[in-house]
From TrEMBL:
Name of the gene: paaA
Record protein name field: 1,2-phenylacetyl-CoA epoxidase subunit A
NCBIfam families, alphabetized: PA_CoA_Oxy1 (TIGR02156)
RNA-binding recorded as keyword: no
EC class name: oxidoreductase
Keyword Oxidoreductase assigned: yes
GO MF annotation: an example: phenylacetyl-CoA 1,2-epoxidase activity
EC number: 1.14.13.149
Keywords: Oxidoreductase
Classification via PANTHER family: 1,2-PHENYLACETYL-COA EPOXIDASE, SUBUNIT A, PHENYLACETIC ACID DEGRADATION PROTEIN PAA
InterPro entries, per database record: Aromatic_CoA_ox/epox (IPR052703), Ferritin-like (IPR012347), Ferritin-like_SF (IPR009078), PaaA (IPR011881), PaaA_PaaC (IPR007814)
Pfam families reported for this sequence: PaaA_PaaC (PF05138)
Length: 328
């Protein structure tokens, strides 16, 4: 047998010393840790934290756009929006499955969310009063998600990285459909152009907050980067995102609501105004404009769906019995 050139962390029952050495070798070789491999307890906990928060974000993230499915301006727009929101449900499911490989159950994660104990992305606590918000969410929110998530396709934990590959492909389509909604509005009447600009003005700063606190206030970054879960810091990705937005905003004909935004050639970065971190912290503390509504809706959906879960369990039981009888 030819020995594999790729190191693996191997036996989950390894003692801590040999397990740690094997784990370190996998990380150093830029290879992947898999569910049955030995891993440090903090690495497992960090992944459960990040992946479950990410899954919750996708599930809660269905609500702001779900609000417009019945009011989309045409059948075509309605079909596209419906498909997008369904994609988000799918992303939540891949991510919950990836988190489950680390030893937490779906029930536990759901319980943490509906009890209001779990975090999910700050961005989903803002309302969507206009149709242009569907464009701004696709362009800015999915755009930020792509910037943040493409590097996660190379995360050191196999199931997470593999889930991200498919998610990113779908997010790219989402981003383009948002851009196209805004472009259509910008090519329309004055009132439509105003609606698009007003929406971009509302979503720009919250989208920048999606990347998390500034690097010097990000307690998890250093370790997550050493473990190659995160590949870039929060501020690095925020800069990359702004760099992506500037030419796209020009193409759309919208302005970005930051009068100080300028390319600094000397430092090779964008100078920008200070983000309102008080607003970010208020939202994380549960005091954003839509926090209570989002959680209440999720709780109601969970309760209303109890019969579906019961039926699925009963069906699985019946199928298992049938299979047993066939073997006997
Ligand atoms: N919102 O030390 P860091 C999407 C928390 S999916 C709320 O920097 P880390 C698709 C953070 O959890 C959007 N909380 O943390 C879509 C930590 O709290 P903890 C979700 C935030 O983990 C589009 C504390 O602050 N994407 O949009 C936020 O190293 C359209 C300190 O922060 C992901 O989850 C925030 N914005 O870096 C769906 C991507 N930022 O846990 C529908 C994966 C930070 O210690 C419609 N996650 N916090 O109590 C990540 O890349 C990272 O977890 C970061 C945060 C970058 C979000």
């Amino acid at each position: 047998m030819i020995a594999s050139p790729i190191p693996t962390a191997g036996n989950p029952a390894a003692d801590d010393e040999s397990g740690q050495a094997a784990f370190d070798a996998v990380i150093a070789a830029d290879s992947r840790i898999e569910p049955r491999d030995w891993m440090p307890e903090d690495y497992r906990r960090t992944l459960i934290r990040q992946i479950s928060q990410h899954a919750h974000s996708e599930i809660i993230g269905m609500q702001p756009e779900g609000n417009w499915i019945t009011r989309a301006p045409s059948l075509k727009r309605k079909a596209i929006l419906l498909a997008k929101v369904q994609d988000e449900a799918g992303h939540g499911l891949y991510l919950y499955s990836a988190a489950q490989t680390l030893g937490i159950t779906r029930d536990e994660m759901t319980r943490q969310l509906i009890d209001g104990k779990a975090k999910y992305s700050s961005i989903f606590n803002y309302p969507t009063p206009t149709w242009a918000d569907m464009g701004a969410i696709g362009w800015l929110v999915d755009g930020a998600a792509i910037c943040n998530q493409v590097p996660l396709c190379r995360a050191s934990y196999g199931p997470y990285a593999r889930a991200m590959v498919r998610i990113c492909k779908e997010e790219s389509f989402h981003q383009r459909q948002g851009f196209e909604i805004l472009l259509t509005l910008m090519q329309g009447t004055d009132a439509q152009r105003e609606m698009a600009q007003e929406s971009v003005d509302r979503w720009y700063w919250p989208a920048l907050m999606m990347f998390g606190p500034p690097d010097d206030e990000s307690p998890n970054s250093a370790r997550s980067m050493a473990w190659k879960i995160k590949r870039f810091s929060n501020d690095e990705l925020r800069q990359r995102f702004v760099g992506m937005l500037v030419p796209q905003a020009e193409a759309l004909g919208v302005s970005l609501p930051d009068p100080t935004l300028r390319w600094n050639a000397q430092e090779e970065r964008y100078d920008m105004s200070e983000i309102d971190w008080t607003e970010f912290h208020e939202i994380l503390a549960g005091r954003g404009p839509m926090n209570a509504v989002r959680i209440q809706n999720r709780r109601n959906a969970h309760e209303d769906g109890a019969w579906v879960r019961e039926a699925a369990v009963a069906y699985a039981r019946r199928q298992a019995l049938k299979a047993e009888r066939q073997v006997a």
